[in-house]
Backbone:
């Protein structure tokens, strides 16, 4: 299973170009049987299959990805954080990506620090340990954005966002899929899954809070896809044993994590592994 985010995005976000995406899919198609996520759940155990997944409900899906997939007859699943279908508000995660692309880590940290109370100042902190892509300051920044109480962080981030990127409603329509885009994707045979409602990390939330997120997502998605959503991708890969209980209760069939592993019949259907597209380098064969 392979995870994509931005493809030929017009905001200068870290992502693939149309050409590199095309090469990527051609490469995968030459090596694997490309199947939908639902098909992968019932594939024979020895099947050499690959599933393409797209997170965050981004507009790139209809503008760049869909024409290529249709051309190559490759299925995929698109995971949508349903709040983008409810209100014109750029998600926290995209605010971070857009700000980092526009002003870089150091300037963003400086702007946030100027607005945060001094005890919450963002400085390189080994407790927010680095992952392989980021330096310690970026890790600390991401950690603070993800875990600091939203009533403290949101107004601060919104203020910096408005200063550098202007009115988020202007950006919103170009950034996310609309309800009719989702219907188009579905009509072309693509699968639609849920990526939480507000893209909050589910793992640290209580059973009731997670239940509200998933209930809301289901409520918004059913009229668009005509049935109960069956597939989920955990926002930021975060989930807990309670999340899986809730997904089972709500009738989901499977969920994708961001843990990098190949899935086998022994893998729990609610803990499916995915490789990030940047981990796969097409090579001449
Ligand atoms: Zn996401």
Residues:
């Amino acid at each position: 299973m392979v995870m994509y985010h931005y493809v030929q995005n017009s905001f200068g976000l870290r992502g693939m170009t149309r050409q590199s995406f095309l090469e990527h899919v051609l490469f995968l198609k030459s090596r694997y049987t490309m199947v939908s996520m639902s098909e992968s759940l019932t594939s024979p155990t020895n099947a050499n299959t690959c599933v393409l997944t797209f997170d965050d409900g981004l507009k790139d899906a209809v503008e760049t990805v869909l024409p290529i997939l249709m051309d190559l007859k490759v299925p995929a699943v698109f995971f949508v954080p349903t709040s983008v279908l409810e209100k014109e508000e750029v998600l926290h995660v995209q605010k971070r990506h857009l700000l980092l692309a526009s002003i870089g880590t150091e300037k963003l940290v400086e702007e946030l620090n100027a607005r945060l109370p001094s005890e919450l100042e963002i400085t390189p902190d080994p407790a927010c340990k680095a992952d392989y892509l980021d330096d310690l300051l970026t890790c600390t920044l991401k950690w603070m954005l993800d875990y600091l109480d939203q009533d403290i962080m949101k107004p601060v981030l919104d203020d910096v966002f408005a200063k550098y990127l202007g009115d988020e409603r202007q950006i919103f329509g170009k950034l996310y899929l609309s309800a009719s885009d989702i219907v188009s994707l579905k009509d072309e045979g693509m699968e639609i899954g849920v990526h939480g409602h507000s893209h909050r990390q589910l793992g640290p939330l209580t059973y009731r809070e997670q239940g509200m997120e998933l209930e809301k997502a289901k409520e918004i998605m059913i009229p668009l896809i005509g049935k109960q959503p069956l597939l989920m991708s955990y926002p930021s890969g975060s989930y807990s044993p309670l999340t899986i209980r809730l997904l089972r209760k709500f009738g989901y069939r499977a969920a994708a994590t961001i843990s990098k592993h190949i899935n086998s019949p022994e893998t729990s259907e609610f803990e499916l592994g995915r490789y990030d597209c940047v981990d796969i380098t097409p090579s001449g064969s």
Q: What stands out?
A: The CA atoms of residues 210 and 243 lie 7 Å apart. The longest helix spans residues 92-113. The pocket of zinc ion is lined by residues 55-56, 93, 195, 199, 235 (CB under 6 Å). The radius of gyration is 19 Å.
